Amino acid sequence: MTATDTHCPYCALQCGMTLTPEIPRVRLEPRDFPVNKGGLCAKGFSAADLLDHRDRLLTPLVRKGHGLREASWDEAFDRIVEAIHQAQTTYGRDSVGAFGGGGLTNEKAYALGKFVRVSLRSSSIDYNGRFCMSSAATAANRSLGIDRGLPFPLEDVAGANTVLIVGANPAEAMPPSMQYLEGTRFIVVDPRRTKTAAGAHLHLQPLPGTDLALANGLLHIAIREGYVDADYIERRTTGFEAVAQAVTAYWPGRVERMTGVPEGRLRHVARMLATEGPAMILTARGAEQHSNGTDTAQAYLNLALALGLVGKPFSGYGTITGQGNGQGGREHGQKADQLPGYRKLDDPAAREHVAKVWGIDPDELPGPGRSAYEMLTDDRLKVLLVLASNIAVSAPNSNRIRRQLEKLDFLVVSDIFLSETAELADVVLPAAQWAEEEGTMTNLEGRVLRRKRALPPPPDVRTDLEVLAELSRRLGREESSDPRTVFEELRRASAGGIADYAGITYERIEREDGIFWPCPAEDHPGTPRLFADSFPTPTGKARLLPVVHQDPAEMPDKAFPYVLTTGRNMQHYQSGNQTRRVKALTVALPEPRAEIHPDLARRHGIADGDLVELRSRRGAAVLRARLTDGIRPDTVFAPFHWPGANALTNPALDPHSRMPAFKACAVTITLHKEG
Ligand code: SF4
Fold first, then answer.
1. Which of 295, 360, 535, 602 has the greatest count of CB atoms below 10 A from its CB?
2. How many domains does the structure of the chain reveal?
3. What is the pLDDT of residues 369-408, one digit of tens each?
4. Residue 596 sits in which domain range?
5. CATH code of the domain in which 177 resides
6. Is the beta carbon of 443 within 6 A of some atom in ligand 1?
């Protein structure tokens, strides 16, 4: 049996693994790839369980009354195309749209964006990365001129001395990455004492939604203590004076009152970042998934730039991507406002370039569409195609999302299992899995990797590229379903853009253990490290921008007195559609646990293991309580891998990125009486 080197189907680390088809099952072994160096987490080790899982969708399903029945591909396609025609004839082109995912390969993300804009001629497309990376991406684009999660290889983290990690829990989300923090002194900012925080040199526990104030407070101290790098600021940045002025209001005593982090700790962290370098600042969803997420990411960028960290060895600012192809997924055109190569849809030159590759007139390209939550809750959307996303569980205010999905004239879901979203569909398409098709992924470092086919898909299962090509054909346009052909076109479409893949080939990826974009030509080595000499902004300098703290869109009050924050557990991934079906993972963590401080629990008569009801203005969820003094007494934590947590979350949107406020909303807590 042939062994195939490929990558994990889950998170953005994209650990290397080898698959060997054996009878009766596929053998999965870790592989010594530069990011994981032979390590895998429990999710990766058990990933082959997905391939022959008994819940696997093996044939198309179509709605019949209240249920779904098996159907042929022909019938499924007929129904979809008829629904598209009917909606577009009656309501216009934008009434039909698509929702993609950060788990799609680059080829599929590219093909989906092209399908919507060219075959459907609709502007209605966005993807779940809007709920994930969009705030950090917006901040990086406006400040650094480019958005690549880590602008350096992961191995550079190991060379840092001090690492400030804000709102991330890599020890649970991507355990093999912790090897890079071993020799560093890392500081964790998180309202919970997570596994990562427990191993940190320092743990700061701010109130959720106050990360921006904390960053401004650190910069205030850095300026007062003379820690900032005046020469770097002068040579490499613009906007420092306005930022310095803005942070005068963030004196340590005030920041302590706003965040709950003692003044002494703030001073300690500012000193470490400035004097115990090389230093790095890494943010993630805990800081970014807020109604002020973009400004919060900007505040940490301001701090990193003022300290002169960005573009120096083992130093800098980065954001830790979560989803497997969260990075590539936002570069190739499935985002409402973007075209391949990270081009802007409202930029005439970008439209012209991409339209030429696609063989259409630039005027035929629709304009930017609505962001994810706005599109999903807009009654003008009548037909929706969902790929690789379980929005009935993962979108904010999920009860409202479910109602909207039920209201659609027609919902199509392509997935490997009957997810909570697929259960609502009119047509469900059985999709090929990660190990059954070819494609590329771009990991959290901006390293483009090859995901390879180790075995064929089951007989009546199709790849998303095949589905999109067939739908296009029935809509009057020929498209390729071959991943390599699609990638060759993606290379041309991205050429000259910010995320330039022109020089990346399948063969090079294979030979060179992945290639970092931008890579504009086949003789270009790729770009593992950005910003050494300049920034891709009009001035060549990074922009500091003044940002001020704003309370979360929903604050605790008498009626809803506590803050809910959401996040991950080690054993599960995203909405849990895959990991909730893997025995080893569900045995280790069978159900969601609400983390509650013992003082708060006592006040409500709650004991460890009791069922509790969390209620927000939007919905309620019942979870089992896990009492821990590792969480703030005013804050409750719920994981988002099961239905429930997002029934509570607040869909208030960041004005810049349109990111919903997943990480802070107001809730009540009560003991749940069973029966
Ligand atoms: Fe897969 Fe991420 Fe675990 Fe690596 S860390 S094995 S990529 S889930």
1. 295
2. 3
3. 999 999 999 999 999 999 999 999 999 999 999 999 999 9
4. 562-671
5. 3.40.228.10
6. no
